[in-house]
Amino acid sequence: MPKESFLVNRIKSVGFAMKGAILLIRTEASIKIQLFIAIVMTGLGFYFEISNTEWILQILAISLVMGVEGANTAIEKICDFIHPDFNSKIGFIKDVSAGAVMLVSIGATIIGFIIYLPKIV
Length: 121
What we know:
- The structure is a single chain.
- The protein is mainly alpha-helical.
- The chain has helices spanning 6-27, 29-47, 52-82, 88-120.
- Helix 1 (6-27) packs across helix 2 (29-47), helix 2 packs antiparallel against helix 3 (52-82) and helix 3 runs antiparallel to helix 4.
- The longest helix has 33 residues, at 88-120.
- The protein is flat.
């Protein structure tokens, strides 16, 4: 069987990644909430005409939260697959993973306050 080209492999990889992003959005309530918040914040960015630097920070914060949320979901699914019954070590792993989402969400919220509070007050 001939080896596929680098370009074909990259195109397939993007397809798998898109499938994963769609699955994440369709199946996980937490990412739906994050997506809603991202849409609202994007709308606010246009409304308040934030600067390029503020856009960069906002997009980075949104991407980080959603990416870590996706990783958290993957970690939880792996844990549930490996050990479906309650296990304190699995619980620890899932709690730490959820904690990571919380930490980046707090950081994103602070970035939002820094960008928008001066424009609102």
